[in-house]
Amino acid sequence: MEMERSNLDSEIEFPQDFRCPISRDLMKEPVIISTGVTYERKNIEKWFFTYKKKTCPATMQGIENFGVTPNHTLKRLILVWQNSHSPSSSSSCFPCSSSSSPLPSFKRDEMVSLLKTLGSSPFKEGWMCFFH
């Protein structure tokens, strides 16, 4: 199943906002740092604790608080997006009648709501492009 998801990840062009600013890979465990920017947990921890960097990689702003907060909203948004673009319903977390059917309206509404919640992100310019 993980191999199947890895192949899917390489075949589908994910929205840039779902990619870690450090690695450009799809985020699986997104976390927010004190500057408000979201990164993949393992990448930002490596930046801070292995490379001993004391700046935000995206903004180059100095960091004093190295704590991270899970970005559950973005993680759910990524999962919803993945499931809506999954070639088979067997690999999705949400049941769908077929791989070519659009998201039911309640899932679309949930996704729009999640996107609005993320509106305060420094990268907000690209969020609503999915629905235009």
Q: What's the topology here?
A:
Blueprint: H1 2-11, E1 30-32, E2 38-40, H2 41-50, E3 69-70, H3 72-84, H4 105-117
Helix pairs in contact: 3-4
GO molecular function: ubiquitin protein ligase activity
Pfam families: U-box (PF04564)
EC number: 2.3.2.27
Q: Can you describe this structure?
A:
It catalyses: S-ubiquitinyl-[E2 ubiquitin-conjugating enzyme]-L-cysteine + [acceptor protein]-L-lysine = [E2 ubiquitin-conjugating enzyme]-L-cysteine + N(6)-ubiquitinyl-[acceptor protein]-L-lysine. Keywords: Transferase, Ubl conjugation pathway. One of its GO terms (biological process) is protein ubiquitination. With 132 residues, the chain is mainly α. The chain has one domain: Herpes Virus-1, CATH 3.30.40. Helices cover 35% and strands 6% of the residues. It has four helices and three strands, in the order αββαβαα. Helix 3 (72-84) runs antiparallel to helix 4.
Structure characteristics:
132 residues; three-stranded antiparallel beta sheet; single chain; 35% helix; disordered N terminus; 3 strands; disordered C terminus; mainly alpha; Herpes Virus-1; elongated
